[in-house]
Amino acid sequence: MDRDRLRLFAGTALAVVVVVAFGLSRIGGVGGLGDGPVPTCQDPVAWDDTSLRAGQRTAVTGVVVQVGAAPEAGGAPSFLNLGNAHPDDERFDIVIYEQVSERFDVRPGPAWEGREVCVQGRVRDRDGVLQIILEDPAYLSVR
Q: H-type helices in 1-139, by residue range?
């Protein structure tokens, strides 16, 4: 009986650790297991200096050269292209799905072109173009 209780306790303790770690990573308390603190726009990386950061959470800055949208695509995303316009592969994309875009006071649009922005999130590589999918309007600042 003592051995069974020990196993139950160990299993419960492990489950609690997993749930807490997962919960913290989902709310940003931990930038994902092993990632360290979430970077801020106080010390961002330039859009064209992100090639070694795929998979990492970081803050990226650059000038919006083009604003695009794909209303027919799933999630009706908008795109802020930094550095160069689509379809140039030498660019950085900020992807803003409609459910996030709706929460902006001023939605992303052509008026943002020429403005410097800073975005915080996980850098992803999509078909050779690096991007961040914006999770919350608070993670994007327009300067």
A: 2-27, 98-101
pTM (two decimals) = 0.74
The half-sphere exposure of 97 on its side-chain side, counting CA atoms within 13 A, is: 9
Residues facing residue 68 across a β-bridge: 79
pLDDT in tens, 46-104: 999 988 889 999 999 999 999 999 999 999 999 999 999 999 999 999 999 999 999 99
Task: Please give the CATH number for the structural domain made up of 45-142.
Answer: 2.40.50.140
Residues 6+ apart with CB under 8 A from 101: 76, 78, 107, 108
**Listed residue (111, 93, 99) closest to 137, CA to CA:** 99
- What are the backbone dihedrals phi and psi of residue 70, each rounded to the nearest 5 degrees, phi first? -135, 75
Domain boundaries, the chain: 1-37, 45-142
Cα distances (Å, whole numbers) of residue 68 to 7, 37, 83, 97: 55, 31, 14, 12
| Gyration radius of the chain over CA positions | 19
Please state the φ and ψ torsions of residue 67, each to the nearest 5 degrees.
-115, 125
8 Å CB contact between 5 and 12: no
- Is 65 in contact with 85 (CB distance < 8 Å)? yes
